[in-house]
């Protein structure tokens, strides 16, 4: 697969450099050596044996290609890895390597170790996004813009409250992800520490502490709730990042021009149209996050696994888990840059508010007129005046006032032109936008 051209560009490059075959082997080795140390501390391995194992294996050149080839016959990387590790040890130590463990213990624990720094990196990126969003929210707390429903102009909001919703989505997902515990896996052949009796759970808890992972209640060979929780938490972040990218991309459209992505040499250029400034960061975010959604479906469909060991379901989890983290990290790198450098054009927002000649304010105007004309007449007149103002390119309040005088002389003196102009001013009809921004900032700043 040409991964360097069609997959890796959507991923975090630093993360990609840390998640490779050797890193997986190092993580599996970390599990095995920690297990030997835990067992030695409890008298199940001769004194000094774990240190000898470490000296022999930490410098041992594991053959990645042979391990990869061995997966075809064993079904996972742990089996050929254990064979190589055992072969590299002196005869008197071989029996103590991988003692009491099964291949799933090795692979699951290694994956948790690989994912641990990725979750730290994701949290740091989300904190960056939060800080940039708060700055944008406060800068545009009172910047009016068109609020759109079903892709059409609806009523005014502020750009600050729009950013607040992006920030809340990302932060809610961050807090959810931060609550995820990555558990060690250790249960032996059928998950009950066969042959170790009351030492089994003790080994498991001590192993978790030594590796810096969470201690589960029980081994979780076919209890995939930890993976379900992790997969859905990653997908929640992906959904929040995609919402941000989708909104920004829509607002960058030439006809709207309310925001623009940060500039960078060559960023957003077209292969054939020199005038274009494509929202490429948004495209990269959406391309990555939509893949995360797909991976989440694989993980969710693998939740129910048979009996004491999955048959394909477990195996299907490995790539989606790692790929989701790498893709999400790549998406959040772009999201942080996007929020930190987003170009905002209040004048374009004002222009778009006036695109209907003020007709966007037909709803508050009808509320003003309803006590005088009745609800149905007020709504009809407001809508007709909005369309007439748009077609004539005249101010909405002027057209409406002229129609009132011409068609409803009985209201003369009861509704003044100044009242219509106030009711037609988007800046005076922003609801709780400003208060929502302030409330969101407070929530974001206080975990």
From TrEMBL:
Ion transport recorded as keyword: no
Signal peptide feature range: none
This enzyme's EC code(s): 5.5.1.2
Residue ranges occupied by any Adenylosuccinate lyase C-terminal domain in the UniProt entry: 357-441
Entry keyword set: Isomerase
Domain of life, source organism: Bacteria
Keyword hit for Mitochondrion: no
Pfam families, per database record: Lyase_1
GO MF annotation list: 3-carboxy-cis,cis-muconate cycloisomerase activity
Top EC class, one word: isomerase
Protein family according to the UniProt entry: Belongs to the class-II fumarase/aspartase family.
Protein name as annotated: 3-carboxy-cis,cis-muconate cycloisomerase
Native species: Halomonas cerina
Phylogenetic lineage: Bacteria, Pseudomonadati, Pseudomonadota, Gammaproteobacteria, Oceanospirillales
């Amino acid at each position: 697969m040409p991964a360097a051209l069609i997959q890796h560009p959507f991923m975090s490059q630093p993360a990609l450099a840390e998640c490779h075959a050797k890193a997986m082997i190092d993580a599996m080795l970390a599990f095995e050596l920690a297990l030997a140390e835990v067992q030695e501390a409890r008298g199940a391995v001769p004194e000094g044996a774990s240190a000898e194992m470490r000296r022999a294996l930490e410098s041992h050149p594991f053959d990645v290609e042979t391990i990869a080839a061995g997966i075809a016959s064993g079904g996972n990387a742990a089996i050929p890895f254990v064979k190589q590790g055992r072969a590299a040890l002196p005869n008197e130590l071989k029996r103590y390597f991988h003692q009491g463990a099964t291949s799933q213990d090795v692979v699951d624990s290694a994956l948790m170790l690989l994912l641990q720094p990725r979750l730290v990196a994701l949290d740091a990126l989300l904190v960056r996004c939060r800080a940039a969003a708060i700055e944008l929210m406060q800068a545009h707390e009172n910047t009016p813009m068109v609020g759109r429903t079903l892709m059409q102009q609806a009523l005014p909001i502020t750009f600050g409250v729009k950013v607040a919703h992006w920030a809340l989505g990302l932060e809610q997902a961050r807090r959810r992800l931060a609550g995820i515990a990555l558990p060690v896996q250790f249960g032996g052949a059928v998950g009950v520490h066969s042959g170790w009796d009351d030492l089994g759970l003790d080994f498991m808890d001590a192993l978790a502490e030594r590796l810096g992972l969470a201690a589960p209640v029980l081994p979780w060979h076919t209890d995939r709730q930890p993976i379900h929780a992790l997969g859905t938490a990653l997908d929640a972040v992906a959904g929040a990042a995609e919402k941000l990218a989708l909104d920004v991309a829509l607002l960058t459209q030439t006809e709207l021009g309310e925001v623009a992505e940060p500039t960078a040499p060559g960023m957003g250029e077209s292969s054939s149209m020199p005038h274009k400034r494509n929202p490429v960061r948004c495209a990269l975010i959406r391309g990555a996050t939509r893949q995360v959604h797909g991976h989440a479906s694989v993980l969710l469909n693998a939740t129910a696994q048979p009996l004491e060991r999955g048959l394909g379901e477990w195996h299907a989890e490995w790539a989606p888990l790692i790929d989701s983290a790498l893709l999400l990290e790549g998406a959040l790198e772009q999201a942080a840059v996007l929020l930190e450098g987003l170009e905002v054009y209040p004048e374009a927002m004002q222009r778009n508010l006036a695109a209907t000649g003020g007709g966007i304010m037909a709803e508050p105007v009808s509320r003003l007129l309803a006590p005088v004309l009745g609800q149905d007449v007020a709504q009809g007149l407001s809508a007709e005046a909005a369309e007439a103002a748009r077609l004539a390119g005249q101010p909405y309040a002027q057209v409406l006032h002229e129609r009132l005088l011409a068609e409803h002389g009985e209201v003369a003196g009861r509704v003044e032109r100044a009242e219509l102009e106030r009711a037609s001013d988007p800046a005076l009809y922003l609801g709780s936008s400003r208060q929502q921004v302030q409330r969101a900032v407070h929530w974001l700043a206080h975990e």
